[in-house]
From TrEMBL:
<comment type="similarity">
    <text>Belongs to the class-I pyridine nucleotide-disulfide oxidoreductase family.</text>
</comment>
<dbReference type="InterPro" id="IPR004099">
    <property type="entry name" value="Pyr_nucl-diS_OxRdtase_dimer"/>
</dbReference>
<feature type="domain" description="Pyridine nucleotide-disulphide oxidoreductase dimerisation">
    <location>
        <begin position="365"/>
        <end position="471"/>
    </location>
</feature>
<protein>
    <submittedName>
        <fullName>NAD(P)/FAD-dependent oxidoreductase</fullName>
        <ecNumber>1.-.-.-</ecNumber>
    </submittedName>
</protein>
<keyword id="KW-0285">Flavoprotein</keyword>
<dbReference type="InterPro" id="IPR036188">
    <property type="entry name" value="FAD/NAD-bd_sf"/>
</dbReference>
<dbReference type="InterPro" id="IPR016156">
    <property type="entry name" value="FAD/NAD-linked_Rdtase_dimer_sf"/>
</dbReference>
<dbReference type="Pfam" id="PF02852">
    <property type="entry name" value="Pyr_redox_dim"/>
</dbReference>
<dbReference type="InterPro" id="IPR050151">
    <property type="entry name" value="Class-I_Pyr_Nuc-Dis_Oxidored"/>
</dbReference>
<dbReference type="GO" id="GO:0016491">
    <property type="term" value="F:oxidoreductase activity"/>
</dbReference>
<keyword id="KW-0520">NAD</keyword>
<keyword id="KW-0274">FAD</keyword>
<dbReference type="Pfam" id="PF07992">
    <property type="entry name" value="Pyr_redox_2"/>
</dbReference>
<keyword id="KW-0560">Oxidoreductase</keyword>
<dbReference type="InterPro" id="IPR001100">
    <property type="entry name" value="Pyr_nuc-diS_OxRdtase"/>
</dbReference>
<dbReference type="InterPro" id="IPR023753">
    <property type="entry name" value="FAD/NAD-binding_dom"/>
</dbReference>
<feature type="domain" description="FAD/NAD(P)-binding">
    <location>
        <begin position="8"/>
        <end position="326"/>
    </location>
</feature>
Amino acid sequence: MDDAPRTYDVVVIGAGPVGENVADRTRAAGLTTVVVESELVGGECSYWACMPSKALLRPVIARADARRLPGLDQAVAGPLDTAAVLARRDEFASHWKDDGQVGWLESVGVDLVRGHARLDGPRAVTVTTADGGTVRLTARHAVAVCTGTAAALPELPGLTDVAPWTSREATSAKEAPGRLVVVGGGVVAVEMATAWQALGSQVTVLVRGRALLPRMEPFAGELVADGLREAGADVRYGVSVTSVAREGGRPDGELRVVLDDGGELTADEILFATGRTPRTGDIGLETVGLTPGGWLTVDDTCRVTGVEDGWLYAVGDVNHRALLTHQGKYQARMAGAAIGARAQGAPVDDAPWGAHVATADIAAVPQVVFTDPEIGSVGLTAAEAERAGLRVRTVDHDLANTAGASLYADGYRGRARMVVDLDAGHLVGVTFAGPGVGELLHSATIAVVGRVPVDRLWHAVPSYPTVSEVWLRLLETYRG
Ligand SMILES: Cc1cc2nc3c(=O)[nH]c(=O)nc-3n(C[C@H](O)[C@H](O)[C@H](O)COP(=O)(O)OP(=O)(O)OC[C@H]3O[C@@H](n4cnc5c(N)ncnc54)[C@H](O)[C@@H]3O)c2cc1C
Ligand SMILES: NC(=O)c1ccc[n+]([C@@H]2O[C@H](COP(=O)([O-])OP(=O)(O)OC[C@H]3O[C@@H](n4cnc5c(N)ncnc54)[C@H](O)[C@@H]3O)[C@@H](O)[C@H]2O)c1
């Protein structure tokens, strides 16, 4: 038992992509910093989320693109080499070892304590280590909670007995199940259904609502559903699971999935892609007057509201502002700079779009969904803009009607939408759906964040013949 408290300027709880970046920024601001991690340095993103999922999907999407090109289609007519795809995925997940990221922490001068951290009153953190020991940490300036999320599972009869897949199993499985049921219609559901259908599983997607990707423009979910069906998956709407059981109660027994429409399915595995829950249930929030288990509410500098003296920050997924790695890392840059400024007694630039506030979380969150077709969206959908009371005009264009798209693939299918704030004269949202559009998205992010006047966008000339010429078509339609 190590009982001597260690004092740092900043204590960061959780070394996911966000905790790592908070620590990097506070260290760069000259503050001594320690990070506590209970599993692997790199967090969910590196080992069970972004990296392994995109490693699974990249060959799937590349093959789909190649199959649309006469001259190449025959060369990729066969099935994917699933073992090779999984082996490459293992490389991208660093074989679930964090030596590389530990080395990076050392290189930027951030200390690491391994174990489960809990707040223990103002500015104090107690870590329980794997051997049952205790490390006590004190922060002179700030504690940043960056504990992320875990998969949220519904309460269903039989669920805990059947060992369901969550995003962790879906991204780290060692072989493709014969039949996979995917529950949910969000991003994890559509990406993992796309991956495993192509890697050899027969996938059934069960959506309780009427659409896939319900937070995006409706055409995004419709095109993704078309893509999944063409790949051989069964996508069903308006249906929920009421119970699950394995034959004979055996771990390898066939799964029986009972549905609320009276139907039943048999399967080998079932993935619940039904959202996330914050990892705040056991981090000592009660010792600082907060309620355990919920999302942590923060101001735009990521400082937790309602905590005396403002020493507690919550950054990344755990604050529920935008559950995306790039957006969490952006918050980390802002929060790290704000902690640095406050520690030095320097002014905090917290006006919208200032140096210490994560304004883009509210106005311009970009996201790429790596399905076939890809979806790229930033800012508000037309429905969201209207709900926000903006006077908007929506302009759509069939992406197939650009020279770049027709060269990209035969039978290219896709759509683009821009949402223009008529009073402000700039874009507040853009959505692209189509092969290859992920790399197009940043142009839209710049237009939305920069509030580039539509009249000036007219002078941003897209190269011929690229899919980016969709910008020209959208602007032509807008200008009449
Ligand atoms: C399948 C899947 C695919 C995804 N794909 C993408 C994508 O392509 N692009 C994208 O932008 N986002 C993607 N996301 C979202 C992305 O993974 C998260 O937004 C990101 O991981 C959040 O980072 P974080 O650092 O806030 O939390 P996490 O990555 O969850 O890291 C939190 C860390 O805190 C540690 N921790 C928790 N509690 C404690 C404690 N008490 N003491 C010590 N340590 C603790 C955890 O062990 C973990 O390492 C995906 C998510 C899923 C599930
Ligand atoms: N490419 C990417 O950027 C990427 C990829 C994967 C995940 N992510 C992020 O990770 C987060 C988690 O993704 P997710 O897909 O798990 O969550 P989500 O919130 O996007 O979707 C969950 C879906 O499950 C449904 N659902 C919830 N409870 C249900 C139940 N009991 N039965 C049936 N359906 C139910 C919801 O209606 C919703 O459509 C998202 O915020 C996403 O942004 C991003």
